[in-house]
Write a structure and sequence with these properties.
The two termini are 43 Å apart. The longest helix has 18 residues. This protein has two domains: 224 residues, Rossmann fold, CATH 3.40.50.300; 119 residues, Beta Barrel (OB fold (Dihydrolipoamide Acetyltransferase, E2P)), CATH 2.40.50. By secondary structure, the chain is α+β, with helices and mostly antiparallel strands. The radius of gyration is 25 Å and the shape is elongated. The mean pLDDT is 91. A hairpin with a 4-residue loop joins strand 18 and strand 19. Bound molecules: adenosine-5'-triphosphate. The site of adenosine-5'-triphosphate has 12 residues, from strand 2 and helix 1.
C-alpha cells in the first residue's frame, strides 16, 4: 500500500527556505494536488517525494518505510515512483510504442509480458493508432498522453506530476484534466499533482493542499477549499471572491461598507478587525431596496461587462469599497445606477484572525 506521509518536511537552500514544516497524509489511491503561486514550494515538495533532493528537516514515509530523512535518503530508482515533467521528456528517436515500453525493457520483463502490457496501456490512453509515430509527429496533447502511458505502464506505487498540462492550449488542457482523472480512477495510484491552476486542481483532486511561502496554508476537498477558504490568501488564490474588511459588532456581525453583515465561519470578538470573504456569484444585485434589509448593502454601479453566460459588475459601496458581482445575463443595470446588494449570511465567511486584507 503506497500511503505517502510527509512529516514536518523542510528544505533550505542556505538562508532561503523553500519548504517549511509540511505535514501531509496521502492515503493509498488518493490524488492530492499541491496548489499555489510561483515560488510557494510545490516543485520542491514533489522533488523531495521523488528523492531528487534531500530534506533539511522532517521525513517522508511511504507504506510505513522511511524513504527520506536528513540522515538517509533512498535514491529515486529505489522508490517505485513515476514522475511526469512539464516537458514530457520523450525520446525523440523512439516511436510511441518504444517510448512507452522502455521502462518495461530495462526491467527485463519477458517479451510477451511487455507486448501485453504495452497493448493494454496504449488502448487505455487511446494511443493505439499512433504507436509507430515519433514524438516529433505528435501534437502536444498526444505527447502528454505518451508520457502518461510511459509513467503508468511500469505500475508505480506513486505517480508524481509536475505541471503536466502547462504546455498545452486551453481547450486541450481542459480535456486532459478529465483524462488524467479518468486514468487515475482506473488505476488508483497514489498521485501527487503539482499545479498553479486552481481549476485544474478542482477538476482532478480528491484533496487540495494550498501552499504559500513554503507551507500548507489549507488542506481540504475541492468543495471545502472553494466554499470555506480559511484565509484571505486562499480566498484570493482560488479566485472569484470579494474580501471586505470591517469591525466586529458582536460574535457574528461585522460593520463594513456602510452597513452590517451577519457572518459565518468563526466566533468574533467585539471590536476586532475582521476580513470577510464572499463569492462574486453569491451576491444578489437589486435595483430597489428589498423589504428585508438584513445583509443588504447599498452601492452604485461602476461598470458592467456582458460575458454571454453572465454579467460582471463592479460596484462601489457607500464607503467607496469596490465589489465584484456576477449576475445573470438578463440583469442589465446601467453604470451610475443605485443598487442594493444581498450578501447571504451563510456565504459571508469571517476569515482567520490576523489575516486581514
Ligand atoms: P513554480 O511554480 O514557479 O515552479 P514552486 O511553487 O514550484 O514554483 P519551488 O520551485 O518549489 O516553487 O521553489 C520554492 C522556493 O525555493 C523559491 O523561492 C525558489 O527560488 C527556491 N529554490 C528552489 N530551488 C532552489 C535551489 N536549488 N537553490 C536555491 N533556492 C531554490
Amino acid at each position: 500500500m503506497a500511503t505517502v506521509e510527509l512529516k514536518g518536511l523542510g528544505k533550505r537552500y542556505g538562508e532561503a527556505v523553500a519548504v517549511q514544516d509540511v505535514s501531509l497524509h496521502i492515503a493509498h489511491g488518493q490524488l492530492v494536488c499541491l496548489l499555489g503561486p510561483s515560488g510557494c514550494g510545490k516543485t520542491t515538495t514533489l522533488r523531495l517525494i521523488a528523492g531528487f533532493i534531500e530534506p533539511s528537516a522532517g521525513e517522508i514515509v511511504v507504506g510505513g518505510r522511511v524513504i527520506s530523512s536528513p540522515s538517509r535518503t533512498v535514491p529515486p530508482e529505489g522508490r517505485n515512483m513515476s514522475m511526469i515533467f512539464q516537458s514530457y521528456a520523450l525520446w525523440p528517436h523512439m516511436t510511441v510504442a518504444e517510448n512507452v515500453a522502455y521502462g518495461l525493457r530495462i526491467r527485463k520483463l519477458p517479451a510477451a509480458t511487455i507486448a501485453e502490457k504495452l497493448k493494454a496501456i496504449l488502448s487505455t490512453t487511446r494511443l493505439e493508432a499512433l504507436a509507430e509515430r515519433y514524438p516529433g509527429e505528435l501534437s502536444g496533447g498526444q505527447q502528454q498522453r505518451v508520457s502518461l502511458a510511459r509513467a503508468l505502464v511500469v505500475e508505480p506505487e506513486t505517480l508524481l506530476l509536475d505541471e503536466p498540462l502547462s504546455n498545452l492550449d486551453a481547450n486541450l488542457r481542459e480535456e486532459m484534466r478529465f483524462e488524467i482523472r479518468r486514468l487515475h480512477d482506473r488505476y488508483r495510484y497514489t498521485t501527487v499533482y503539482v499545479t498553479h491552476d486552481q481549476s485544474e486542481a478542482m477538476t482532478t483532486a480528491d484533496l487540495i493542499a494550498v501552499m504559500n511561502l513554503g507551507r500548507i496554508e489549507q488542506l481540504g476537498s475541492p468543495e471545502e477549499i472553494y466554499d470555506a477558504p480559511r484565509s484571505a490568501f486562499v480566498a484570493r488564490f482560488i479566485g472569484g471572491s470579494n474580501i471586505l474588511t470591517g469591525a466586529a459588532v458582536d460574535a457574528s456581525h461585522v460593520a463594513l461598507g456602510g452597513g452590517t453583515l451577519a457572518t459565518t465561519g468563526r466566533v468574533l470578538a467585539k471590536g476586532e478587525r475582521v476580513s470577510v470573504s464572499v463569492r462574486q456569484h453569491e451576491i444578489e444585485i437589486m435595483t430597489a431596496p428589498p423589504a428585508d434589509a438584513s445583509n443588504v448593502l447599498h452601492a452604485l454601479v461602476g461598470r458592467q461587462v456582458f460575458l454571454g453566460s453572465a454579467r460582471d459588475y463592479t460596484v462601489m459601496l457607500d464607503d467607496k469599497t469596490e465589489l465584484r458581482v456576477t449576475a445573470p445575463p438578463d440583469r442589465n443595470i446601467a453604470p451610475g445606477r443605485e443598487v442594493w446588494l444581498h450578501l447571504p449570511a451563510g456565504r459571508c465567511r469571517a476569515l482567520a484572525q490576523g489575516d486581514n486584507a
